[in-house]
Amino acid sequence: MKKVLIFTYFICFWGKLHAQETIVQVKQEEIRKKVEQLLAKMTIKEKIGQMNQYNGFWNVTGPAPTDGSAVLKYEHLKSGQVGSMLNVRGVKEVRKVQKIAVEETRLGIPLIIGFDVIHGYKTVSPIPLAEAASWDLEAIKNSAEVAASEAAASGINWTFAPMVDISRDARWGRVMEGAGEDPYLGSKIGYARVKGFQGDDLSKKNTIAACAKHFAGYGFAESGRDYNTVDVGESTLQNIIFPPFKATVDAGVKTFMNSFNELNGIPATGNAFLQRKILKKEWGFNGFVVSDWGSINEMVAHGYAKDNEHASSLAANAGSDMDMESYGYVNHIEALINKGRVDIALIDDAVKRILTVKYELGLFEDPYLYCDEKLEKSVIGSPENQAAVLDMAKKSIVLLKNEKALLPLKKKGQKIAVIGSLAEDKNSPLGSWRLAADDNTAISVLEGLNTYKGNTITYAKGVTLTEGKTDFTLETKINEEDATGIEEAVALAKKNDIVILVLGENGFQSGEGRSRTTLDLPGLQQELLEAVYKVNKKVVLVLMNGRPLTINWADENVPAILETWHLGTQSGNAIAAVLYGDYNPSGKLPMTFPKSVGQIPIYYNHKNTGRPEIPAPNMVFWSHYIDESNAPLYEFGYGLSYTDFRYSDLKLNATSFKRGEEIALTFNLTNTGEYAGKEVVQLYIQDKFASITRPVKELKGFKMVSLEPGESKEVTFVINEEMLQFYSAKGIWEAEEGDFNVFIGGSSNAILKNGFKLID
Ligand code: NOJ
C-alpha cells in the first residue's frame, strides 16, 4: 500500500515519462532484492543448476548425446539441477517440465524455456537475410513481435535470436540467419528485432527474452566453412563485428550467446576479453550469456582445454553464465570451486543474472504464464499473423533485373509456363531454422500464381533439385544426373508466351553446417535454364535461395530476375503479388552478390589499398584480378522497382562544421516512371584520411520515400559528429577532424557526391 502511494505521488509530480522510469527502477530494485534473498537460500548445487541448460526430448539442434542421458536429465530436473531447457515446446510439454521444476524441486525455481525462434514460429516469416532486404525497420520489428507472440503462446519465453553476425562470405550457410554485411544496417535491424521480441514489458504474455548471437566473429569463419577459425584484427572487430552487438545491448537485450569459433586463438566461449571486458564491463550488459550448443566442451577439440572440467573452468571464469548441453557445469563446477579454480563470487554473479531475467519474464509470479492453451489455439497461425508475414514477404523481395519492362506480368490473356521443382515446393520456402513449422505448409509459387485466374498456367518440373528426404539433420544429395525432365520443360517453354523459371536452393542448402564452395545454381538447374532460354527468351527467373548466388549467365541473358529468398509461409502469395504488379518491389540487397567465389570476401565498405586504379593502359601492378573484374555482380544496397527514380540537386547547407554541430544535406528524388513506388534512399560517408585507413564509403543513413508517378520530394539527412565516429588508432570511438565525402543514391554505387570538413 505504501509503495502504491509513493508511486502515485511520483506520477503526479514528475509527469508520465519520469514516472515510468521510476516504476522501472522500483521494479528493478524489487527484483534485485528478491534475487538476493533467493540466492541466500540456495545451495551450491542449486546455484550451478541454474547455470545448466538441457535439450528437451524432441528437436535436436546440435549433436545429440547417444548415451541415453535422458534419464539423467530427468533426475537432474527433479533435483533442481536444471535452470533452463531448450527445444521443449507446446503448452502441454512445457507445462510438464515446468511442473517438475516448480513442484518437485526444493526451491521451486521456474525454468526458462529457450527455442530458436529465428524467423517466425509456426507461421513462418522470411529468413532474416530476406527481411533485412526490406530495410523496413518497423516491418522487421513487427515480424519479431508476431514470432514472439506465437512462441510465447506455445510455452516459450526465450528465443535464441537475433543473430547479428556480420558476414562478407556467402559460402557460409548461416548468412541466411543474419542481416548481411553492413554494421550500420545490421545494428538498426538487431535493435528492431530485440524491441520486437521483448516489447516494453517482458512479463507480458506475448513478449519473450531475446538473445544476441554469436558473440563474436562467427561470420568471419575462414573460407566460409562453418565453425572454422576466425582471425581478425582489432579494427575489424571493433568497427565491423561489434556494432550490431552493442546495438542489441542498447535495445535492452536480456541474453547473449557466445560462439563456436575461436577468435584470434581463444575460443569465444572461454574468451574473457569478449564476455567480461567488452560485454559486461565496457557495455554494461547486465543480462546473462549462454554458451552455444556444446561449445564449452568443444574447447577441448579446439586445443584450448585439457578436458571437460578444464573447459568448464575456462568458460565460467571468462563469463559464460549458462552451459548449453556440455554437461560441464553440472558435473564439474562444484569441484572447481572446492579446488579454488572458480570463485564462488563469479557463480553468484552468473546465477543472479539468470534469476533476474526469470523474474523479469514474470515466471516467479506465474510459472505457467506462457502456458495458456486458449491463447495457443487462437494466436498460432491466426489470420493477423498470416497477414503480417505476407506483408513482410512482399517487402523482402528484390528486383534484380527487368529489361523492357517484362514485369509486371499482364493479368489476362497470357500463356505462362512455370518451370522448376521449387515452383511447387511447399517446404523449401520455409527456409532453414523453422523448427516449429509443419512441413510443407508454405504457399508454393504455383499456388500463388494460380490465385490469378486471367492467364493459363502450365507447370513442368524440369529437373529435381534434390534427391531423397530433405531434413534439418540429414545431408541433402543434390541431383546431378537425372536430366530427363529438361526435354518436357523445353517443349512447354516453346508453347508459351512467357516462362517463369523458379530456381535456386532448397530450404536446407543454407543454414548451419551448410557451407558451399560454389555459389552456382545447384545441380542441373543451370542446364535447365539455358535449355529453356534457347527456345523462349521471355524468361522471368524467380530465385529462391538463402544466400547470394553467382548468377552471371542469367544476368547477361535473362531479361527479368526476381530475388525472393526463402520467404516463409506466405511465400507464393507474395511472389505472385509482385510478379503481377499488385506490389511494387522495393527491396535492396543487404549483401553483395559476387561474380565468382574467387572474389570472396567481397563487400562494399572495403578499403582503397595503395593501388586502387590502373595507373596506365595494360599496366599490371594494381590491385585487381587478371581473370575477373573487381566489381560485384550486384552491389550492396542494389534493387530495382517497376518505376524509375531520379536523384538530383544534392546540397549541403555548409561545407564544414564543428564538433557538436551538424549540417543538413538535401536532394530531390523524383519518380520518373509509370508506377507508384517506394525507394530506399541511402547515405554513405567516406572519411578521406584518418589515423587508421577508412573504408571507401560506409552506410550512415537511409530512408524510405514513397512517390506517385511524376511526384518529386526533397529529402533531408542531418550529418553530425557521431556519424563520423570510428574505433581509431587511439583505441577509442571518436571522430577525427578532416575531409569527408558524402554520397547519395539508391545503392552503394551512390551517384550524387559532395564533400565537407569536420573542424576542431
Ligand atoms: C547451435 C547454433 O549455433 C545456435 O545458433 C542455436 O541457437 C543453438 N544451436 C541451439 O539450437
Structure description:
The chain has 760 residues and is α/β, with parallel strands linked by helices. Among the domains are: 208 residues, Rossmann fold (3-Layer(aba) Sandwich), CATH 3.40.50.1700; 115 residues, Immunoglobulin-like, CATH 2.60.40.10. Helices cover 32% and strands 18% of the residues. The chain is built from 20 helices and 28 strands. The strands form eight sheets. Strands 11-18-17-16-12-13 form a six-stranded mixed sheet. A five-stranded parallel sheet has the order 4-3-2-1-10. The protein has a five-stranded mixed sheet with strand order 20-28-27-22-23, with no helix packed on it. Strand 25 and strand 26 form a beta hairpin. Helix 5 crosses helix 15. The longest helix has 40 residues. The model has no long low-confidence stretch (mean pLDDT 95). The protein binds 1-deoxynojirimycin (NOJ).
